[in-house]
Structures are given as C-alpha cells and as structure tokens.
Amino acid sequence: MSDRESTLSDLLHETRVFPPPAGLAAGANVTAEAFEAAGRDRLAFWERAAERLSWAGRWERVLDWQPPFAHWFPSGKLNVAYNCLDRHVEAGHGERVALRWEGEPGDSRTITYRALCDEVCQAANLLLELGARAGERVAIYLPMIPEAVVAMLACARIGAPHTVVFGGFSAEALRTRIEDCDARVVITADGGYRRGAASPLKASVDAAVRDCPGVRHVLVVRRTGQTIDWDGSRDLWWHEQVGRQSREHTPEAFESDHPLFILYTSGTTGKPKGILHTTGGYLTLVAWTHWAVFDLKPETDVYWCTADIGWVTGHSYIVYGPLANGASSMMYEGTPDTPHKGRWWELVEKNRVSIIYTAPTAIRTCMKWGDEIPEQFDLSSLRLLGSVGEPINPEAWMWYRENIGGGRCPIVDTWWQTETGGILISPLPGVHTCKPGSASRPLPGISAEIYDDAERVLPRKDAAGYLVLTEPWPGMIRTIWGDDDRYREVYWSRFPGVYFAGDGAKWDSDGDIWLLGRVDDVMNISGHRISTIEVESSLVSHPDVAEAAVVGSPDPTTGQAIVAFVIPRGSARTDAEGERFARDLRDHVASEIGPIAKPKQILVVAELPKTRSGKIMRRLLRDVASNRELGDVTTLTDSSVMDLIKEKLPTAA
Ligand code: WTA
C-alpha cells in the first residue's frame, strides 16, 4: 500500500467529532452567522479584511487579476512596519507586551510595542545609513532572538525585501540564496544556543559571502560571545551601530504590490524557488487569518507559535500576523528538550500561554517522551491549539487534545504553504466541528476544489484527488523571484488556469477536507519541505558516488524520513566501510544543504531499478524504503535490497 493509500484508509476510519465549546462560540471573533455572510461575496469580504489595516492611500479596486499574476488593492499604499507597530502605540497600546522572549539558557526579555517600535526605527535608520534602499534585498541569517523580528520589520519599514535563511541551513545554501536574490547586506549573529551549546552562525556567513562580492556589509548581533573571525572592511556589530541611531523614523508608504520578502522553498527540481510576497494583500491575509483562526483577543491572550522564523510559519504567524493584530506573543530560542523534556510546558505555565501553534512532528515527539512530562505543568491557561506543516494523524491529534489541551481546547488544523502566504483551509474555532485529522473547510473568500486526473471538479462528498485553488486570494505568491516562466510552469500548468498546490486531498461525506500528503517529489520531513532531487544532487556531488536516488518513507515521528539509494564509484565495500561511507555521505549532505536534509537511511546498491527510458522507478524504491526490516545503513552490492527491488519488479520488466 502506498503512503497515500494507507493515510486514506486510516482517515476513513476516523469518526470522532468535537463541536465548538459553547463559551468560545458565543464570544468568537467569527461566529457562524458571520462566516455564512463572509462567504457570499469574495471580493467584498477581502475588502473589509483590508480595512482592518491602516492605509496611507486607498486602493482603486480590490483585485487586478492578470492570470496568473494577481495585484491586490492596486494603488493602495501602506507601510507594513507602521501597521505592526506605530499604529498600536498611537492607539494607546505602547505599554502592551509585543514579545516575551525566552532564551534557551534561561535568560529572557520582555519587549513592549513602544520598545519594539523604537528599536525597529533605529535599525531602519542604520540600514539607510549603510546605503540600503527600497527594493534592495537584505539577507537575514539569525537564531530565534528578538533581533530577528527587529531586522525583518526594519527591512519592511524601508521597503527593502528581506530573505530570511533558516539558521540550520549550510553556508552553501546561504550563498546560493544570497546570490539568487543579489542581497547587499547580511544580518547575522555570532551564534545561537541549541541543545545547551553555542552553535556558530557567523562562520557560515564568512564562507558564504567570500564568493558574493555584492555583499557590502555584514551586521553581527552578539548573542553567544563566542570567538569569530572579523573582516573590518565589511563586518559591523549590531549593538554598536543600532544603539547610536535615532528612534525617530517616518515610515514611507509603499504600493500595495511592493515586494515584502523572498523566502526560498524546495520544489521538484534541485534549485530552491524564491517565493516572492508583496505587501497589501499579504498583510491583509495574515492579519485576518491570525485573528479569525486563532480567535485572537489581543488584550488577554498570550500567543505562542513554536516555528522558526526561517520558515513561512515564522514570517506569517510569529511576525506579521500577530504584530499587525497587536498580539502579545511568546518567542522561544531553543529546542524543546533543553535543559529537560518539559521545557515547552514549563514555558506555557510560566507565561500563561493561551494559544499555541505547533507542528505534528513536535506533537509526536512529545507523545514519545511520555504523558507524564506535560502532566507536571499547569497548562490550564491554554484555550486553543493549532497545528501546521503536514497532515496530523488522528492519534497525535487526540493526544494533543487530551494531554496538552486538557480535553477542552479546540484544535485548528491549518493547511497552507509558503506560496499561499497564510492559512487557507482550517476550522474556525467558534464555527466548525473539529475532526481529528481534518483541516475542515476553506476559509471565507477562498475557492478550493479537488480535481481528478482529467481536470474534473469532484463533488464535495466522498471524493479524493488533487487540491487546487480556482480563484486568486490576497497573500498569494506574486511570482518566483526572477523566473515568471517557472512560476507559470510549476503552479499553473498542471491544470491550466487554476493553482495546483501539489497536495492530495479528499472531501468526506460532510464536505470536510482531509489532506493526504504531497503528490510530487517533495518530501515533508518534520514539516520541512525538501525535494528528492535536491538531496540526490548533493549526494552525486560527492566524489565517491556514481548515482543516487532519494525517496521519503513513512516515519512515526518526523512524518517522512529521507532514504537514499546510492551506487558508489569503484569497488564493492565491506559492511564496516559501508558504515563509514554512509556517515561521510550524511555529513556531506549536511554541509551542502543542512542537517535537516541528512538521509536517515542510506542503502548502498549496485544498480537502481529503471524504466526502459531510463527513469528511476521511485515508487518501487519507496516500497522498499518502507520495509521496516532494513537496518539504519544497509550496505549491499549483491543481496537483500536488490532482491527486494527485484521482487517488486513487474515480471514483464
Ligand atoms: C504540507 C508550511 C496537511 C502540505 C505552512 C503543503 C499540510 C506543505 C498542512 C507546505 C496541514 C502544511 N495538513 N499538510 N495542516 N500544512 N502541509 O511551504 O504538503 O513549508 O503543501 O508551508 O506542507 O509546506 P510549507
């Protein structure tokens, strides 16, 4: 049975339902009546959502749609940082906490809206002094520290699109991103804390920018105090430079379609795609969805999104959505098991967190650690739980509900992508009945359908196929940076005229949506997108590898795990040599892409099953990879893997 078929059969047996708690429904930001009304006129709905923001100039129309390019609120003008900061201070909320930041070693900072606004103005003034200007790209490579938020908002304030690169990515990954978008300034730190130790960042920047002559300045935040190399012609300490700047900065209003950020994500080919997001539509979507899906009450809630700022979830639901809504957020630097496995729950108790937004892989890890860990903490402040990044299996959903949510908190399973900018499919906690494993309904103003292979719209009842979006939405990807053709090809050519998400999905008998995983060569490892081809090209760039094929196989904790089939150059290896070889290859992939892309299992083989036209038969390899009896590293040139592969070969082949 394929991954998708087995997911489907699990889901078909799921019948539990959890209607909205009465108290929450009565006071919900979006009630059942409001939901009904919102769905009637898509453009009018989004226009009202945009009116929740402060605009310096009104738009001419809601949407200018030149397929597949959408311009939302054309001619409208706004400043994103003003919307996230100044307007809250002006409205008298300057003393409200914007961020409660918790460092991994136990240090913490509480930052009010006024203080955050001041620091963002100072950082914006510094960027201007360094010659940055509207439209010029700035790369951000930082740990989860408040300066990451400050840096992003400072860029937004001056209209310089940022590209945040996840701190776990390698120097090489950083270099290709800096190069692709031609960033001129890089903002980084000496290092960050992970698993109780200071891990370096600046060293990767040094290696990356060596080959990027366009980079004029590297701004370095001092976080760990570790020793770093210094290039006096280029490097500047953040604390020395930001601190001396004026706190006054008048925000300039930019066109609604002005670029806000580029975020790289894996596609089905080796080269990561720079997903471009712009201003007005994006902020409208993330602000509305953050308010509606999490039922945010900015005066009383303490909201915590556990994502890293290097992923889109961090952009939309740590930075832009929550701050546009004037929310009080908690932000945590480190890993969930440092210094102990109850750290997250200790932080919830300490900060009285009321809304938590995390990923199924984290939930499954906590499940594995045991119920007795969260039991030791007072989690009664929680009132709403969220999930994102991959399909959540019903067992993890129920564990989350019972052990974290005390059996009383609704769970919003939110489906979206880097390309969608914000949540498009999710239950609204005061409206919809939640089902373990279902992302429920498209939000108002979102036109989602499921197509079959032949481009037919499936009826919204008991049907499975490909998830598509048939109308543009605000916050939609604007294009792939520098490559409009690839943008058309990747998203708009599978089914002409509609957006192809790359996910399988089904409608159940009540008309609720269940996501079934990717239908392309993109793997989802702990909620992170990694393409099989990206890992393959990294493996074949190793001098001892002749050929490689990579597949995702089901994994109880990370959702999927990377399994690589590798044909070595030269002679056959003994088992011990094979172990060493596999270790080398893993390190090689880690240094080329980053540790998240390390194959969990490496199978050394003499040949790969191919079709007559020479295409690797991945489906077969996936079946082999799902065979749980294989060891962590299986070295063979002659025996079991190939036997397994052969057994699966159709007799005709
Ligand atoms: C998957 C993360 C099922 C999906 C925000 C999508 C999900 C990819 C869900 C995007 C969910 C995300 N249920 N699958 N609730 N949320 N996905 O770009 O395959 O990192 O296409 O964005 O994650 O990953 P990305």
From TrEMBL:
Cofactor(s) for this UniProt protein: Mg(2+)
Posttranslational modification: Acetylated. Deacetylation by the SIR2-homolog deacetylase activates the enzyme.
Function, as annotated: Catalyzes the conversion of acetate into acetyl-CoA (AcCoA), an essential intermediate at the junction of anabolic and catabolic pathways. AcsA undergoes a two-step reaction. In the first half reaction, AcsA combines acetate with ATP to form acetyl-adenylate (AcAMP) intermediate. In the second half reaction, it can then transfer the acetyl group from AcAMP to the sulfhydryl group of CoA, forming the product AcCoA.
EC number(s) reported in the record: 6.2.1.1
Residues the entry annotates as binding CoA: R194, R195, G196, A197, T313, S526
Gene: acsA
Enzyme class per UniProt: ligase
Domain named AMP-dependent synthetase/ligase: residues: 91-472
GO cellular component entries: cytosol
Record's catalysed reaction(s): acetate + ATP + CoA = acetyl-CoA + AMP + diphosphate
Domain AMP-binding enzyme C-terminal: 534-615
Protein name in the entry: Acetyl-coenzyme A synthetase
GO-annotated molecular function: acetate-CoA ligase activity; AMP binding; ATP binding; metal ion binding
Residues making up the signal peptide according to the UniProt record: none
UniProt family annotation: Belongs to the ATP-dependent AMP-binding enzyme family.
Annotated ATP binding sites: G389, E390, P391, D413, T414, W415, W416, Q417, T418, D503, R518, R529
PTM-bearing positions, type N6-acetyllysine: K615
Domain Acetyl-coenzyme A synthetase N-terminal: 33-84
Pfam families in UniProt: ACAS_N (PF16177), AMP-binding (PF00501), AMP-binding_C (PF13193)
